[in-house]
């Protein structure tokens, strides 16, 4: 479960960065909204999967509610999912 969550968190983080630094500038600076629609839809799907997996991993790793909130908040902060992976998923508990 944790290895799947790690993959999902990386994909979610990458899709978020693509939206922020690639597709949004394309949309607003070059009037090209199509990439934003495609990446945005993928990101939305990955975001929902991230939330579900975070809740499932909470029970597997016996996280406190505070830790779960931090992990969930990491999904809305640029580069947050990468930090979350290093802090909460790769360390030995």
Can you give a write-up of this model?
It is found in: Cell membrane. With 93 residues, the protein is mainly alpha-helical. It is built from four helices and no strands. The mean pLDDT is 94. The protein has one domain. The protein is elongated and about 45 Å long.
SS-based class: mainly alpha
- Biggest beta sheet attributes: none
- Give the helices and strands as they follow along the chain: HHHH
Low-confidence stretches: none
Helix content: over 70%
Rg calculated over all Cα atoms: 14 Å
Mean pLDDT: 94
End-to-end distance, in Å?
A: 15 Å
Tally of discrete structural domains = 1
Number of strands: 0
- Morphology call: elongated
How many H/I helices? 4
Percent of residues in beta strands? under 5%
Protein name: Membrane protein
Main location: membrane
Organism: Aquimarina muelleri
Subcellular location: Cell membrane
Question: What is shown here, in short?
Answer:
The protein is mostly helical. It is built from 4 helices and no strands.
Annotation keywords:
93 residues, 81% helix, 0% strand
SSE blueprint:
Layout: H1 2-29, H2 34-61, H3 65-73, H4 80-89
